[in-house]
Structure formats: C-alpha cells, structure tokens
Amino acid sequence: MHSANSPATRFATRLLFLVAGFGYACWAPLVPLTKIKFGIDENILGLLILCIGVGSITAMVATGMLATRFGSKPILLGSGIGFAVMLALVPVAGSVPVLGIILFGFGATLGALDVAMNLQAVQVEKAAQRPMMSGFHALFSIGGFSGAAFMTFLLSMQVAVFTGTLICAALMALALFIAAPRLIDGGATPGGPMFALPRGLVLLLAILAAVTFLVEGALLDWSALLITQAQLVPVAQGGIGYIIFSVAMTAGRLSGDWLSGWLGDFRTLLWGGLVALLGFVILLTGAQAALVLSGFAFIGLGCANIVPVLFRRAAAQGAMPPALAVAAVTTTGYAGILAGPAVIGFVANATGLHAAFWMLAGLLVLVPLCARSVTAKV
To answer: Which domain holds residue 129?
Structure first.
C-alpha cells in the first residue's frame, strides 16, 4: 500500500479529479441531442438537468456520513465506476422518466466522487506538508475541457452516441483501474458522529464556498446575456466572456499551489477576493469590449484558489470530523452553483441584470472580509 506522501498517490489523486471533470463535461454535448431525441421543451430539459443536481446534493450528504465510517477509498472506487456506467447509459434511456432516473444516478455518483476525492486530496496535501489543492482542482478543469472536446469530436465523426459514451466511460474506468492500487484508505473516524450540522468555522467556510460557486454558476449562465445586451460583442460571440473566465481560473489553479505556499492561506483568500472584486468593477463599469472582457480574466484569476483554500481549512479544523466538514463545504458549494442562475434570474427580473451582477460583487466581499477569521489558527 502506498503512503499518502508518495508520487504514486499524488498521481492517483490527480487522475480522480481528471476523471470527474472529464465525465461531467461529456454530458454537455449530449444535451441538444437529448432534446431532439425526446422532442422536449426547455422546461422538461431543465427538470432533467435538475435531476443531476438533486442526485449530487443527496449523495454528498450521504458520502460525508459513509466516509466517517469506511474512509474515502471504497467510496471513490464505487462512485467512480458507477459514474462511468451512468454516463454510458444516458443514450440507452427510452423515455424521459427513465432518463431522469439515470441522470439522478449520474449526479449522485458524481457527488459522491466529488466529496471523496476532495477528502483524499486534503489527506495527500497534509502528508506532503505543502499546498496541493489548487493543482488537484486544476485537473478537474482540464478534464472538463478534454471531456467536452473529446465527446464533441466523436459525435462530429458520426460515431453513434452510445458508442461515444461507451468509449468515454471505458477511458474513465481505465483511469480508475490505474489509480485504485495507489489510493490511500483514510479519512475514517471510528466512533465519531456520522452526521453533524455545519457550525462555527465550518459554517463560515460553507457560506464562502456557496458564494464562490454562485459566482461561477452565474457567469456560466448569464455573462453572455450581460455583454451582448450591452452590445459589447455580437450574440454569436457571447460565450467568450465565460471562456476567458475559465481559462484564467485554470491558469490560476495551475500556479495556485506555488502561490498559496508563498502567500499563505490568509493572503491567498484576501488578495484572491480583492482581485475578483476588481474584475467585477471592470466588468460592470467598462465601456469598451477589450476592457470589459479583461474583467472576466481578473474574476477567474481571483476566484481560482479560493475554493481549494476553503477545502484545506475544512480538513484542518477541529469542530467536526474532516469527512463531514469537507462534505458540508462541497454540498453548500454545489448548492450555490445550482441556485446561482435562478437567484440571478429573480434579481435581474426585479432590478435588471446589471444590478444582479453588482449583488454578486457584494456577496464576494465576504471572502476578503472573512479571510482572517477562516485562516486563524485554532
């Protein structure tokens, strides 16, 4: 069995994040095909996508409980294989209800994998005694780019949808097979509680995670409309803002471990939050396209390493078992990315999209304001 502080274990942990991002992104090119296959409208499609989110949040809560008893390794392997199987089954669904069940399973296995891989990552980072979380999360982003691109390539080459998902699932299973013997079997706290409501520091970490993920979800769904309504870019190029944000976030995470080691967690949160706020100011006050688009880059760079630091602090606190704390931060973060688009929609309907984005900036102020509190030694 490999130790937590070994190159093999670090490699296996990176593979987990790559698999999670890859598998999740493989679903994106299937969305329009699903709409056409079943002849459904946007409302039904939205409910199907909601099944993924409900499955994820449900599993995240359960995973925290299970990890306190059994550790992260069995959950990683079980959820990882289940995630690949669910992806392969998506094109097999013959009706909308059956597809809803499959997507619920797809979301549940992704949610369980997400919590367990972050728990594994914080153990590996702790053993290495140096920042590593940003690099792990960068692999999720790289997996996302790769999954969407590879599935799109297969479909453009006229590969059957089921064959395409089967190929992608097989690649995921292969990566898990390679990772399995190199993973550590830790994170269990025998005799500890299987459930605890987030409290104290963990509650604050969870709120900050929700805010950061809310920003990401809002940019994904509303940034194109924001810049096209302002006639800064043509409608066909509306997605460029989110692309810039994503590339900047990935670049920020690839250098984030070095940055966190140099600055420390407090300054990483403080300056990350301030840089992201600067991005919002540029985005919402700029009058020229190039200047406004640079705002997306600042937001991506600023937000890049906030969540990795929050996970690190969740694992280091002593108020709750680490598995439950990591699950709480993951669950609330994911709830933020799900709720974000809806919240922005309601606010935009009442006050306008511009004002809704200023609300996002106001929420993000919490990160630098709370940086000292969440990084204080306990």
So the answer is: 7-182
Please tell me the predicted confidence (pLDDT) of residue 47: 84
Residue 192 resides in a domain: no
**DSSP conformation letters of 78-133:** HHHHHHHHHHHHGGG--SHHHHHHHHHHHHHHHHHHHHHHHHHHHHHHHHHTS--H
Give the separation between CA 70 and CA 68, rounded to whole angstroms.
6
**Short-list 21, 13, 46, 63, CA closest to 330:** 63
State residue 351's pLDDT score: 86
In our burial notation (b when 16+ CB lie closer than 10 A, e otherwise), range 77-94 reads bbbbbbbbbbbbbbbebe
Residues 96 and 227 in one domain: no
129 and 208 share one domain: no
Please indicate whether residue 31 or residue 371 has the higher confidence score (pLDDT).
371
pLDDT tens-digit profile of 140-170? Answer: 889 887 888 888 899 889 999 999 999 999 9
| 45's tokens | 């499609």
Other Cβ atoms less than 10 A from the Cβ of 139: the count is 25
Distance separating alpha carbons of residues 252 and 99, to the nearest angstrom? 36
In contact, 282 and 245? CB cutoff 8 Å: no
